[in-house]
Design goal:
CATH topology of the largest domain: D-Maltodextrin-Binding Protein, domain 2
CATH class of the largest domain: Alpha Beta
Number of domains: 3
Helix content: 40-55%
CATH architecture of the largest domain: 3-Layer(aba) Sandwich
Order of helices and strands: HHHEEHEHEHEEHEHEHEEEH
Shape: elongated
CATH superfamily of the largest domain: Periplasmic binding protein-like II
Strand content: 15-25%
Distance between the termini: 58 Å
Structural class: alpha/beta
Largest sheet: 7 strands, mixed
Oligomer: single chain
Number of strands: 11
Length: 295
Amino acid sequence: MNTTQLECFLAVAEHLNFARASEDLHITQPAVTHQINSLENEFNVKFFRRTTRSVELTQEGINFLNDARTILQSVNLAKARFSFRQAASFTHFNIGCHSVTELALLPELLKGLTEKHPNVHPVLRTVPIRALENLLENESLDVMFDYKEEKRSKSSSYHELYKAEIICALPKGHAHASDPFISKETLQSQKMILLEPHKISSILFDLQKPFALCHMPSDLYFCENFESALTLVKSGLGITMLPDIRPLRDPDICYLPLKDQTSLSYGIHYKPNRRTDVLKTFLALADEMAEKTVL
């Protein structure tokens, strides 16, 4: 299978006419017929039902339409990407986040970064934290946003942005929404929304654990990420605990400090051997962003 065969297939599928397809492609009609026959022989199916008066797509042809478009688009994008690389010099800057919410931190940073380094092309990766750690370790990432963990690999460096206190997220209109803070004793009487242990920091896990043990299973909800947990909070299903990063707060949720609170350090992880000028600029811009936010 080649791109010429796919182009011929899509042209015939669009016009349902071999003569018009050949005109669009600027090749002869016999050449179009040959490409379609070769493609059908390779897959051992008929994509078109042909008579002397009409051309129709078979069910196999209909099923193959999206595949053909996707393959051809991917090839054309790859060609364009390599052509552009030959025409202009640019550098990828790979940024890892473990939640979609964290992407809200990036627009201002990326605007400033590309203004100072016009040839930088940011690449955003949003995958689970353990996958991010592996990508950072094998240097497929330049930076990774996450909390500081003592057990994390010593081969990476850490740049703190925030001291994030552990707070509680409640539905607006909750009976305790107007309280100045919320105590662990109060939480023991509430339905709780907890995150799966392997998806969170050890500090937050230690805070969650007593509630997981003392609550009835019917009073607990478990989620894969903070976005899912906050969706359940807004639905009025319970309360969750999370580190407080002010720029990431949801205006439709009430946030209360946790009595006898603890805090997490939140920032940027990177490999020290990749501390380029671009990275230094990114860290400096991140510091400026953090300083604008009073936690």
